[in-house]
Amino acid sequence: MAEADIQDHETEGEEVELIQLARANDVLPLEIHLLPVALRPFFPGQAVPLMMKAEHWAPTMKAVADTEHKILGIVLVDSETSEEATTQHFHQVGTAARVHRIHQQDGHLQVLVECLQRFRISDWINKKSPFRARVAYLPEPTVAADSDVKAYAMAIINTIKELLPLNPLYVEELRVFLDRFGPDDPSHLADFAVSLTTSSKEQLQEVLEILPLLPRMEKVLVLLNNELELARAQQKIRSSVEEKMHKQQREFFLREQLKAIQKELGIAKDDRTAEIDRFKSRIEKLHLTEQAHKRVDEELEKLSILETGSPEYSVTRNYLDWITLLPWGKHSTDKLDLKRARRVLDRDHYGLEDVKERILEFLAVGIHKGEIAGSIILLVGPPGVGKTSIGRSIADALGRQFYRFSVGGIRDEAEVKGHRRTYIGAMPGKFLQAMKDAGTANPVIMLDEIDKIGASFQGDPASALLEVLDPEQNTDFLDHYLDLRFDLSKVLFVCTANQLDSIPGPLLDRMEIIKLSGYIAEEKLQIARKYLLPRQIDRAGLGKQALKLNTKTLRALIEGYARDAGVRQLEKQLGKIVRKVAVRMLEGEETPIQVTETDLKDYLGSLVFRDERKLSGPGVVTGLAWTAMGGATLSIEAARTHSFNRGFKLTGQLGDVMKESAEIAYGYLMSHAKEFGADPGFFEKSFIHVHVPAGATPKDGPSAGITITSALLSLARDEPVRRIAMTGEITLTGEVFPVGGIREKLIAARRAGIKEIILPEDNQGDFDEVPEHIRKGLTVHFASRYEDVLPLLFKQADAPSAR
Question: Per the residue annotation, which of 70, 430, 699, 745 is the catalytic one?
Fold first, then answer.
């Protein structure tokens, strides 16, 4: 027997032979060093190679090497790694092993040990590394001629036999075991069998701690059967994967052989030739320009000499694919029938007569010319009034293809004009993509939300649109990717926007503007009855007679839950009612289900809109405002807060223009107070506070000028104003200037139940263009100076004639 000390880390590559022969009847020491292991425990009868870090365990192994018996206790610990283990982490039962060989290399110790016998830790001698303890050995149970033990031993052997074909590594381990023990040694057989499994370390430790033979073999057989099922599942998965791979390889070789045979017989072509022929067959059906023909010939020649695996081949093929898929010279035949166009517009939309007339006038000019030339129409209006659906109806009326995309939020001009081919993944812009998808050179292309187009360091898409939307330039539209001139002059562009302020002037100048105002309650009522409710019932899969909503209920729904300018909110509320009706039908309620005005709260919750408070008294006047959601009424309040000093204060989240209008009104009225029947000294000693509810809503614009003037005059005279609404800009000399959004403001006044309105004289033309059904029942006065407004304000005044 050779013995040697383990040197420190400097003895790299040295190997120490400690014990060459182990005897079963060796007397084992009662005090031994312990080595913690974190992965799994070891069993008696195993010869195990261990790998450990020299910096941590060299002192332990040196201490073992210095002993005569060379015995080491191997114990499982609960810590993540053996280096972190403390005495609290050690299990009580471990395995005594004799160290045969120690080899140090690259900062690690390679140790070969032979596991001998179980032991239990009795007492700790050294609780820090190197760990040392007193132990009590647990002898193997004596084997009796027990039929149960034999039966379990045979079951374990048979299970091992089934495992051998599934995992060849088990064969070598079994051979090592049979060299040392016989199959008639059930204790070592059980330990050997459980060591073959991939069970958890807790399960293996449980087996190690079971001394009685029969319970141990029962536990081992369960774990061994689990391992067998796992091995079978792995084998099944492996076989399935290999079968698929063999099938794919076989099909690949057969296809390659088929291609070779077809090529030899002249009945098939390679991929490159097939693609070139496909491009040429496409080109024959197109009317390419001379420039495009020349470019295509150059690219085809390049494609024929490139290797199919090269990146340039893919770029060239994609480029030719795009060129040959564009509708060069392909035009659909327009349906130039004005009566049909009117029927389509009336079928798809209720009301909007002025808009329909504008569209029909536009189509009539095209019919006289024999073609609808490329034009740009801009539909402006609040959300939900039908701008997008009108564009679709125009395409339907003309019999053209329709393509829609939103330009809202686009910040890169490459979205419009494409990426240059030098970039990986380059593509044409949206317009050429639209032409490809439409399949004709004269589709109707809708650009949604053009007022929300952005700009960034990547470019200005609005400026890029100037070329597209200019009839003088888009005959030769140049896309960066295609790098060829393409004719967009036959395209009918329909743009939509909620407001004009954010659209650049040069872009707006190229468009034919058609304004869509909001719907009044009567129009919403008809739209709900004819379009929205039937559509929601159809989407829910209910029968036509499943739900009944009378006119009174619909009117209450519109006034209480859907006062927006469009009908989008109205459709949402109707959809909510239909869904609740569907639930009630499934619960067994009889149809038709009648929804009344009083039922709306159960279906839709509390009212979203309540009647506007009719504020009255001195200093309170109703104004009319325009918003992106349509028209609105504003009650402007003026109050005298104190008389300690002169002053003027504005609240209500007003913009700069509205603040200036208020200051102009204050200054004008101070200089003309006596003429208008107010005390000239009132403003000299009063602090005036003007507020525009609601305070959380931003407001701006000059149209509240005469309204603020009237509120201040009412306060100064301490006299309330009649129920009348007004709008108009005022100047320091008392002139009343025109304002915008007349139609929307008239709709807002009707919605609020106000029948008498004051408008600037210069807006009389705008008023005349408002549809008759909106003007009906309204008394409108026109004012060119504030002196024209004064007689209309107070009850004792005799109002002049009105329209």
Answer: 745
